[in-house]
User: What shape does this take?
Amino acid sequence: MSNTTTNYIGKPASRVDGRAKVTGEAKYAAEFPAPGLTYGVVVSSAVAKGTITKIDTAAALSLPGVLQVFTHQNRPGLAWFDKKYQDEDAPPGTPFRPLYDEKILFSQQPIALVVADNFEVARYAASLVEITYETEPHITSIKNRLHEAYTPKEYKSAEPSPRGDAEKGLAQAEITHEAEYSHPSEHHNPMEMHASTVVLAEDGTLTVYDKTQGVQNSQNYITQVFGLAKEQVQVISPFVGGAFGSGLRPQYQLFLAVMAALELKRSVRVVLTRQQMFSFGHRPATIQHLVLGSTSQGALTAVVHEGFAETSRFEDYTENLVNWSAMLYKCDNVQLAHKLIQMDAYTPLDMRAPGGVTGLYALECAMDELAYKLDKDPLELRLTNYTNIDLSKDNPFSSKELKACYQQGAEKFGWAKRNPQPRSMREGKTLIGYGLATGAWEVNQQKSSAKAVLSPDGQLKVTSATADIGTGTYTIMTQIAAETLGLPLANVTFKLGDTALPQAPLQGGSWTAASVGSAVKAACEGIQEKLLAHIRNLKEGPLAGVQKLEEVLFADGKIILKSNPAQHMLLPEVMRLAGENFIEATVTTKPELRQKKYSMFSHSAVFVEVLVDEDFGTIRVTRVVSAIAGGRIINPKTARSQILGGIVWGMGMALEEESVMDQPYGRFINHDLAEYHVPVNADIHDLEVIFVEEDDDIVNPLGVKGLGEIGIVGTAAAIANAVYHATGKRVRDLPITLDKLM
Amino acid sequence: MNSFTYFRAHEVAAALTEKATAPQAKFIAGGTNLTDLMKVNVEQPHHLIDIRRLPLNKIEETEENGLRLGALVTNADTAYHPLVESRYPLLAKAILAGASAQLRNMATNGGNPLQRTRCYYFYDTATACNKREPGSGCSALNGYNRIHAILGTSEHCIAVHPSDMAVALTALDAKVNVTGPQGERVIPFPEFHRLPGDTPNIDTNLSPDEIITAIDLPTKGFAENNAYLKLRDRTSYAFALVSVAAALELEGNIIKEARIALGGVAHKPWRKPEAEAQLVGKEANPENFAQVAETLLAGAQGFGHNNFKIELAKRAIVRALLQAAKMEEIS
Ligand SMILES: Cc1cc2nc3c(=O)[nH]c(=O)nc-3n(C[C@H](O)[C@H](O)[C@H](O)COP(=O)(O)OP(=O)(O)OC[C@H]3O[C@@H](n4cnc5c(N)ncnc54)[C@H](O)[C@@H]3O)c2cc1C
Ligand code: SF4
Assistant: This one.
């Protein structure tokens, strides 16, 4: 199919929604209008733990335009059981219920919602609500509390599974390395604040515009909590201004907006402030204890990886933090633990590459330290311990081109020029360092549905209730559909983010391309089948006699006879002859059973150059080469953007990002984007992305692995390793700010 | 944010009259700091007097061969003004080291020195802060004080003044022209900001009913030998952890005059005449610069998270002076 004009998969395509986004035509949750819309503003708790003894709403209520102040004292009675509040991404425990009672469980907990008929009045009224608390001592740190850590009853992903005998492995080791690595809590901070606009129709049904990574998750949550039928609630989310995991769980503005709409019988919008974006899920702070043992040649004899992570008092949040240490390298003796420590803060939440980005940071820094002890090139050490089998499951990898990543990345970067000695490369007062790290991320396919409808004008409409959180879903689904049916991109529209559309999983885990992409492909193949059925009935014309799909090609807007490409028909022609006005197919795809026999991962090798000012400890990341083995690349342009975004975020994690918990207040204190630092343009220099060839027919019919997360994994460790190489100083607590290097 | 009324003044006199009738009103210029503070309820004016259209929007030469910067000229227009670039490059560098291009396009020369501290607690009404609410306490003292002051602090407040522009203006001995109900007066820049003492709620010696009309730059601009060095947590769009405005007048390798002002270390841009005097007649070299750094930092005290600033400031002073003396590349 390589010479056709409708061959889109693997070719760069600009975002099909790009124009709508830059012109402002694309609407986000807080931008949908509604007649008689009212505005809710959230009042947040000033304390981290305790009880509300008094809540005085009189002044707020007396302002003209204020409709109601909802608090735990006047909220409606709602669902009783925890289960009803458990959304698709809820960890085990008792989900937080907004305005439930007088108890304060975390700082900035929503404790009142002021609703007024305009936003300014609501905001002013919110500042007039007076709350009296009886505080209780809170704990908001995991430091020095490792002895309190416990093993959760249930892990979200695979339980840490040890193998062999790590103690024995360590006893055999000729070289060992042991150290503790840590990083603080971090917040997602998408550009768009969480928002819900709930539009109440005259018949009482709700149309909810929500910022979410899964409209069906929001819909289920609302129907369960408020006892509504699915027919009564439609959730719509066509565009999301970044989410990174923050939209995986329905956030409290959704609950509050729906509650207010039902109670007041009005349409309601609630938008959180930037400060309130620090009031819910976040990447949990961890402390990780690593011990590596190896032979004098660098073959690993033991890996011990124990992770301690924060969670809330009410839910046990876990992520795949330590299992990487069992799958990435060849080693017979692996000991793992992943324990939790409770804090008086909100439950953590998946944030881009949850667990991978933090667990592998620790492992990959430890590997680097081991390499220095062995006097071995860190790249060599990785190759020495390379494995083609996932020893944690004894499964072969469905594909693993990590070696190619190392080779191509090292060559492009010029790794060979590295002087192995730390603090040996410099230009004047500028120390130069090279570092590398490996990344890995799970590949998953989820059950997904899609519907394709072909109209007589040759236009194809494909739909699925998935999301596009900025990743390029609209674009790649359009490409997949267009190529499958051989139609020009311009003839295809893809619609998403609506509960009226076929079921799709939450957009997370980098599985959308694989899952929804497979469904879209299958739905379009369903259309092919239906067209074929009509072609089979043709007694004359260019395609008469065709019996099987293999005999034809869908390309260039036509159905072409393979044996004689001069013979072809347009798709609408077939429909017209068959007397069909529309042809449609709805298909649900699931992972194939044979996947179970394989381990499926994407991999990366990240090479970094840093320049460090010897006197000040200021760090510039001047070059990054990230070589990715991510299966088939559907759109190199959007794919590259995903990886670039991941690299930049990895730089933030390594050098800048920290949600600073003020201990006396138990409150994240740098809660705005002036003080919560993420990289700015001036921080970014030369970034290079390499996609190595990787064929994989196991992962899914498209051979794609997903790229949303692999780009960030490995980056922070590579930078930390480069900083050590530059300075000879090992900082094991992120972010590496200048004070830690002085 | 509370509701407020709004008045746009076209003449200085009109603005002052309006202020006299509504003493709690606030002047608003670029609004880049005031509106942020209003959104988080730190400032709650019931009335705003917009001074953006006052005829104070020119940069002109003064009779003494200096430069007068109108209070309402934007930071961007000031930094890129040919006379500022050629005669006061230190000021241009300091302005451009601050905020972002978008902010500098809005921010004004009068508003910039009046921007308030970035202390986290000052911005968060759920916490105690003597600057925001006198007598409530200082949360930074025993809280997270990594960005806080090491010089001139008091037990009531350890905040730093965040402006970059003000650091250069202090080094250059600029003068602030103000007009108020009592008429006009001039405040030398080094005396414009205050130390916190027991009234940290008062940042400057400008009276609330006075308007800044212009900032005057004296003849001497140290255009030949100057440097603005800003150390921060990211390359741009971050406030200084430590910054140094350094200006030298050299004869050969001998220092005839030196100016050094520090940002990010105190409640006001930090200058010490005796330190500068110490360099006069000396050779420009790292040893002499290191000595002056010691003098400047004498008495510095950290509060835990910010202890590193003491050593950082010393190293920054040396580097900035080396850069000013062109003995060191600017990276
Ligand atoms: C995210 C962010 C990052 C920033 N980073 C930096 C930085 O790195 N370095 C830096 O120096 N600055 C930085 N700034 C601050 C910025 O420089 C100031 O906000 C700006 O200079 C203020 O000027 P303005 O005209 O907007 O003041 P406004 O906000 O309009 O006013 C500030 C105050 O001054 C008063 N006022 C203004 N003009 C006059 C006048 N003529 N007479 C009397 N009173 C007056 C107002 O009443 C108000 O109290 C940053 C700001 C933000 C938001
Ligand atoms: S340092 Fe000053 S501004 Fe900060 S909390 Fe203390 S009193 Fe307030």
In short: DSSP finds ten helices and twelve strands in chain B. Chain B has a mean pLDDT of 97. The first helix of chain B runs from residue 12 to 21. The pocket of flavin-adenine dinucleotide (ligand 1) is lined by residues A 674; B 26-34, 36, 51, 71, 75, 98-99, 103, 106-108, 110-112, 114-115, 162-165, 211-212, 239 (CB under 6 Å).
